[in-house]
Amino acid sequence: MLTQAPKGTRDMLPQDAYLWQWIEQKEREAAAKAGYREIRTPVFEHTELFLRGVGDTTDIVQKEMYTFKDKGDRSITLKPEGTAGAVRSFIENHLFAETLPCKVYYLNAPIFRYENPQSGRLREHHQFGMECFGGKEPTVEAELISTLFGFLSGLGLKNLCVHINSIGCPNCRPVYHQKLKEYLVERIHDMCETCQARFDKNPLRILDCKEEKCKAIVKDAPVILDCLCDECREHFEQLQALLTARNIVRGLDYYTKTVFEIIMQAGREGLALCGGGRYDGLVEQLGGPATPAAGFGIGAERILMELKNQNLLPDMPSVTDVYVANLGAEMKIPAFTFCQSLRDLGVKADSDVAGRSLKAQFKFADKIGAKYVVIIGGDEYERGTVKLRNMATKEEKELPIATAAEEIKGIIA
Predict the structure, then answer these.
(1) Same domain, 160 and 102
(2) Do 241 and 378 share a structural domain?
(3) Neighbours of 16 (CB within 10 A)
(4) How far, rounded to the nearest angstrom, does the alpha carbon of residue 257 sit from its chain's CA centroid?
(5) 210 found inside a domain
(6) Domain interval for residue 283
(7) Under a CB-based contact definition with an 8 Å cutoff, are residues 350 and 323 in contact?
(8) Distance from first CA to last CA of the chain, Å, rounded?
C-alpha cells in the first residue's frame, strides 16, 4: 500500500527527532574523545565486497542481504553492516599511506537486513561504529571497549556486561576447527540443516546457531582458548589484564583474535547491545596492504529501546521559546519581521501562518509549549512598544520595539 511503510522500516517522526539528535551528539563526543574522525560511505556497495568481506557462510550473506542488479547489470547490495564499506574506503582512498593508526567512526548509517522484524531489530536500522586501522596491540580493543562502555554508561544504562573471547588466527584456528569437527561428527545429524551445511565450510559458525537443540549440543564442545597459539594467547591475556573476560563467539567471518559484545546482565538478560572485534586479515583480503584493524557496530534503535526500557529518555525540548502573535491582518508583516529578528539572535521563535484569531494564536502557542508570547498591535504598537506575556505566570509587560528582541533574548537566556 502507498500509505504504509515497507515491513521492517519505521518513520522517524518530528516528535522523536530530538532523541536521535541527542544520541548522535553523544556518539560524536565519545568518538572524538578517543581521537576518531567521521567517515561516511555509500548506502550500497558492489555485492562482491560483502561476499569476500563478511563471508559467504554467514547468515548475513546467505539469508539477509538486499541484493539487486542495476541498469548496467552489476550486482549491488544495500549495506548489511558497516565495517566492509569502511575497509573498502580505507583501501580505495589510500588512507593506509597516511599516518597510522587511522581512526574513523560512522553514525546514523542505514543498515539493511532481510530478517523477521522484532524488538530492537528492523530491516532498516541505523548503526554507530568505530574502526581502527593500523594498530596491532590489544590496547586497540581495550580502547574501543572502554569508549563504548563509557558511552553507554554515560547515557545512564545499568546492568551492562562486557563479554570477550579470542577466536585465534589463521595459524591456530585450524587446530580448533579439527577438534571441533571431531566433537561434532557424531552429533551433526541431530543439528539443524544450517549447521549441517556449515560443518565442512566453517564449523566455527555452528557455535553461533540460535536453535535450542544446536545450542545444547555445542554446550560441551571444545574451548577455543585451549587451542590458541602463543601470539594469540599473549594478546588475549594482555587484553584480560584490562577487562573482565567471558566467552562469546560473534557471527561474522572476518574476525581474528579478539571478539566482544556488551550485553544486559539483568532485567533483559542476554540481550546483546553491540558487538565487535579484531579483523587483521580483512584489509589484505579485500585488496589492500596487510593492516591490523579492529572495530565495533551498535544499533541506534537498540540503544533507544534500552533507554526507554530503563526510563532514561530525556524530555523533549521546547519547539518554540517565543510565539509572536498579531492583532489583525495589518500587523502580520510587523509580527513576521519581529519573529525573524528573534531568530537572527538565536531565539527559537514562531508566528502565525494560518490566519488565526488572537485567541486561537494563544491556544496554538500553548500547544507548542511557547514560554512567552509577544503581542504585536493595538495601542502598544502605536506607542512604539510590544507586549510580552509569560505563559507560565501570565505576567505581562511592555517593551520598546527597538530593543525588545535583545531584551527577550536576555530573558530567555
Answers:
(1) yes
(2) no
(3) 14
(4) 24
(5) no
(6) 14-172+228-309
(7) yes
(8) 47
